[in-house]
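So, who can interpret the following?
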Amino acid sequence: MSHEDGPAKQGIIDEWDAWSKEHPEDTKVMGGMLFFTHLQEKRADLLLDIKTAGDKWQTIYAWLLHERRVKD
């Protein structure tokens, strides 16, 4: 993770925490992929903040794993 990802990562983690409280069962589906769908539909602004040359889902998934929000 680059230092530029710090605020973006924190925004994603904060959004996960809020979303997961409203959708506890959905957090267990496909390692959080429903959360990514939520981001695409409702919080595209957060996705725009992620600076990555790769797949944004992979970046977000890695963040969620690292922060122990999802299981591998």
